[in-house]
Amino acid sequence: YHYPKQLCHPYYSAAMKEILEAFDKPQNKAKMQEIEQEANSDLVKLLQERLPFAAEIQKEVIKCHGFSDDGDQGSLTFTHAIKLFEKEDEEIASMAADLKMKFIPPLPHPPLFVPRDVT
């Protein structure tokens, strides 16, 4: 992977904060809520709409930090670097978990399987 030279730990932390702040902008929050309402309880539809929108929000921020906005390469490079830093830094790990929730909503837990004696 090619990482922008100026990006080291503090820059990734700042970029993560900016990405999370971007999700909290009123227009982005409204769009995320709209996506959830339109999908209703259809998880596939929710992910089909939510993932690209979340990726676009992230891409807009990281391109300001020197990452490519040509296709998905910049996002992949950024995500790979975050994976490395989150092992070393609790704050980045926490922000990475928060960011993951922006992309993939909490999934409902299936009912627990209770084995029955069928003999």
Features:
mainly alpha, globular, 0% strand, 119 residues, 65% helix
Question: Could you explain how this protein is built, in words?
Answer:
This is Protein C10. One of its GO terms (cellular component) is cytoplasm. It is found in: Cytoplasm. InterPro entries: P_C10 (IPR026317). One of its GO terms (biological process) is post-embryonic development. With 119 residues, this protein is mostly helical. It has one domain. Helices cover 65% and strands 0% of the residues. The protein has 5 helices and no strands. Helix 2 runs antiparallel to helix 3 and helix 4 (73-86) crosses helix 5. The N and C termini lie far apart (57 Å). The mean pLDDT is 85.
Identify low-pLDDT runs: none
Q: Report how far the terminal alpha carbons are from each other.
A: 57 Å
* Strand percentage: under 5%
Order of helices and strands: HHHHH
Shape: globular
Radius of gyration: 18 Å
Average of pLDDT? 85
Task: Find the count of extended strands (DSSP E, 2+ residues).
Answer: 0
Number of helices: 5
Helix share bin:
55-70%
| Number of structurally distinct domains | 1
Main sheet, how many strands, which sense, barrel?
none
Counting helices, strands and paired strands, the structural category is mainly alpha
Pfam families: P_C10
InterPro entries: P_C10
Protein name: Protein C10
Family: Belongs to the UPF0456 family.
